[in-house]
Amino acid sequence: MFNSIISLGLFGLASAVPLTSRQLPNYPPSSSSTGFKLVVNVTDPAHDLSPSVNGLFLQAIHTGAGLNDAVLQVDGRIFYQNGTADEIRYNQGNILTDGGNPPFPSGIDVQNKDTTDADGKHEVAINGGAGTKGVSLALFPVPYTILTFIARGTFVACDQFVPYYKQNFITIRYAYDIINPLTSQFEHDIPQGCVAINLIPQCDVLPQLPVPAIASHQFAANVKCYPDVRAIDWTKYGP
């Protein structure tokens, strides 16, 4: 059910959920934490990659000084949402992770609509700095907490060759929506070899920073997250 709701913009396919669940909002148990990992949920299992990427974690692989490509692996980085209450409310905060020695902040960068990687996809990276404005965790009235980007589209997982390592990784890219000229409606434009995904925060402990550190957790926000994303049976929940 979760797959259908998010991929359709929180509408439709309620018939997949028992009537009693449709009458009242019914969402999986959540908690809160300043630290979290981001876990993949494939929005359309019929188009999952093989082997499946469902349940993998967002991680980063080094591609240069302060540069890291966003990929999926069996374990992931710990992130935090950084910003004042007003910044987060108005989508002006940042999703950060710490690395290096001394630790420095790295943000999630999303290539703009007019820029692509060598394969024509819009790269998602985890680079030193604040990252791209507009990358945040969804707030009310969105019923599920997921990673979002202010530009209309979806995150995708792609089986892609990474020249720096001369091998394939499951990369994270962003697919901007396009307008269907027949319907004048926005539609997902999923690149070949990719699958649409949601990145869901799983609660974790935000490590204490050593001294000295370039990073700061002063404005690390307490966010809604899920204790064990992979254990959730989404068919039980909705609308």
Automatic annotation (TrEMBL):
UniProt keyword terms in alphabetical order: Signal
Stretch forming the signal peptide: 1-16
Domain called DUF7907: residue spans: 33-203
Pfam families membership: DUF7907
InterPro entries per record: DUF7907
Name this polypeptide is given: DUF7907 domain-containing protein
Species the sequence originates in: Pseudomassariella vexata
